[in-house]
Amino acid sequence: MSLRLSTVILPVDRWHEGGRAKWQRAEELGFHAAYTYDHLSWRTFRDGPWFGALPTLTAAATATDRLRLGTLVTSPNFRHPVTLAKELISLDDISGGRITLGIGAGGNGFDATALGQEAWTPKERANRFGEFVPLLDRLLTEGAVSQKGNFYTAEEARNLPGCVQRPRLPFAVAATGPRGLKLAARHGQAWVTTGDPRLYETGTPEQSIEALRGQIERLNKACTEVARDVAGLDKILLHGFTPDRNRPLESVDAFVDFAGRHRELGFTEIVIHWPIPESDFAADLAAFERIATQALKQLI
Do residues 299 and 260 lie in contact, with contact meaning Cβ atoms separated by under 8 Å? Predict the structure, then answer.
């Protein structure tokens, strides 16, 4: 099974002070895709620079030619399907059809209350996500959409001429629960996971592998329930949140071992964070670039 390697570039740099250079370097290094987080702020970066995901991706689209671009991930926390669809169609057009939308239910971090609302419970997030994804699917594939939902309404929302990618740009659905996995099976072109967060602090890499195996088994079940072949669904692992932490980025050999074990589970794409000094994503840039250019050759 072939494996793709991608990166995620957090939007922490001014565009003309290193931001543009990272996205262009990602293309030079041969990454399949470069993603960014779609948050208003995030964890330890909250009190520092943090730029908007969609404007950043628009700039990246004009600065690159071949690199796929996308979010990991967008959520309903501060997005509405009608306005998001218009922005995505525009971004897909500007990029020449190189956009993937990573999308998830969101969490209870800083985004959850930035608009003044109370943080939603897990059940409320799942309910909203269950309405958000199908409506966004319609908005990106139909010329005009009217729909009244419990949470989101569209009234003659027009999205001509539609996406460059047909019938729409691909969705990479982040999910581990049964309702989210069913959305991935029904609407996704890819499925995204970060592993089991309960294992991050005290778990082992072996326990993580077993947890991921269980997630993929549940994804298989969700696909079976909607009569879909799971083999047609890409499986993306966002690295950095398993008990391995950043150790796989210490050398090409370490990464090849990590990637090989996860490829055997069925993953088709691994996404590694572009190094950021003095953060949870600190790593040696030279080793990171060697992994980008050499690791996949050893996995053929």
Answer: yes
